[in-house]
Automatic annotation (TrEMBL):
Residue ranges of domain S-adenosylmethionine-dependent methyltransferase Rv2258c-like winged HTH in the record: 17-90
Keywords, ordered alphabetically: Methyltransferase, Transferase
SUPFAM superfamilies, alphabetized: S-adenosyl-L-methionine-dependent methyltransferases (SSF53335)
Classification via CDD domains: AdoMet_MTases
Domain (Methyltransferase): residue spans on this chain: 164-324
Protein name in UniProt: Trans-aconitate 2-methyltransferase
A GO MF term: methyltransferase activity
GO biological process, one term: methylation
InterPro entries: Methyltranfer_dom, SAM-binding_MTase, SAM-dependent_MTases_sf, WHD_Rv2258c
Pfam families reported for this sequence: Methyltransf_31 (PF13847), WHD_Rv2258c (PF21320)
Signal sequence coordinates: none
Length: 348
């Protein structure tokens, strides 16, 4: 046991380091560039990537010893095999894991602040997380945007036809607005509103809608803690938003009150159980509890919120949806997104 456990810990420090360097490979576009190159030397790779040769060499050292990139010592050439490149690049349709690795450095930036919270309670506000909205937009592009039309919208019978005809849609906690913008382009007869408290995110979403030349979107800085249900919507979405909330019960009630009598609420949230014992073999357990502790729970606690955390789980989610008044709640899993449940709920 002793040896096996120390091997496990050695593997852990290696994999943690590898995650940091995978993130750098994504941000520097080294994976995208390598995927287009034949086996190449450090010089050739650094020149093509327009990056400092000494840094690229050390990064390649991590990638070779981390079994990501192949190295042929007979000619000092490096190769990213196609079957690995498809999980590490922007261009392929498969899940880009190197984009998700960015969460590790995003979280590591706030380690000192989180340690202060371990001593004194409280939390770390959203504003402390450098690059959060940028990384979130990349992540949800993979789970939400790419699956919207083929997987997510068909969960609500007749919704695509209603969107074609023209309905009012609200996305709460819309972040950089990738989902809203793609839907607005696809369904020009419908009107799409996005609320988020982060000015930076709303600015990015608005800029993207201008680039797309759509005139059926409205992005607004709105705080879900204070916003009132003055307008009615036919379809409301919340992608990875509810568990972060300072007052998630109020947010769910706001959604319920903002829906038309035949309206539908669609909530994407982390696939987990409320019961830790049922998450023991969760394939992303350590990652999700980490992101919960170092972000989702903490941002809520920073304003004396509920601090549900990312691992609030299906049982708690169902209880809260019913408490807000929703009926006919269904919980779905979708093949394109192994991290989330998709809940659909309507009014009685
Ligand atoms: C985890 S992110 C998800 C963003 C987006 N839905 C996506 O999937 O990319 C949660 C979002 O909720 C927003 N948010 C958190 N608290 C909020 C509040 N009180 N009012 C409005 N938005 C809030 C954050 O700014 C952030 O953009």
């Amino acid at each position: 046991m002793g040896d096996a456990f120390s091997d496990y810990l050695i593997d852990t420090i290696n994999k943690g380091s590898l995650a940091l360097m995978l993130s750098i490979g994504h941000r520097t576009r080294l994976f995208d560039i390598l995927s287009t190159m034949p086996p190449s030397t450090v010089d050739e790779i650094s020149k093509k990537a327009k990056l400092n040769q000494r840094y690229v060499k050390e990064w390649l050292g991590t990638m070779v010893t981390g079994k990501i990139i192949d190295y042929d010592s007979s000619n000092s050439k490096f190769n990213l095999p196609k079957e690995k490149a498809q999980f590490l690049t922007r261009e392929d349709n498969l899940y880009n894991f190197s984009a998700s690795m960015q969460w590790i450095p995003v979280l590591a930036q706030v380690e000192d602040k989180i340690i202060d919270c371990f001593h004194s309670g409280g939390g770390v506000p959203y504003s402390s997380y450098n690059r959060f909205h940028e990384v979130m937009a990349e992540e949800s592009f993979q789970t939400v945007v790419t699956g919207l039309v083929d997987h997510i919208l068909p969960l609500v019978p007749g919704l695509i036809d209603r969107l074609k005809d023209g309905i009012n849609v609200l996305d709460i906690g819309c972040g950089r607005g990738k989902a809203v913008n793609i839907l607005a382009k696809k369904f020009p007869n419908s009107m799409f509103v996005g609320y988020d408290v982060a000015e930076e995110a709303i600015k990015g979403a608005t800029a993207d809608s201008k680039t797309l030349n759509t005139c059926n979107t409205l992005f607004q800085v709105q705080n879900l803690l204070t916003v009132e249900p003055t307008k009615k919507f036919d379809f409301i979405t919340a992608f990875d938003v509810i568990h972060d909330q300072i007052d998630p019960s109020r947010t769910l009630k706001f959604i319920f009150d903002s829906l038309n009598s035949s309206g539908v609420f669609l909530m994407q949230d982390i696939l987990s159980s409320t019961d830790l014992a049922k998450n023991i073999d969760h394939p992303l357990g350590p990652f999700l509890y980490t992101i919960s502790c170092m972000h989702c729970m903490s941002v809520s606690l920073s304003e004396n919120g509920a601090g549900l955390g990312a691992m609030w789980g299906k049982e708690k989610a169902l209880e809260m949806l019913r408490y807000a008044g929703f009926m006919g709640v269904e919980v779905n899993t979708l093949s394109h997104d192994f991290q989330n449940y998709y809940y659909t709920a309507s009014k009685p």
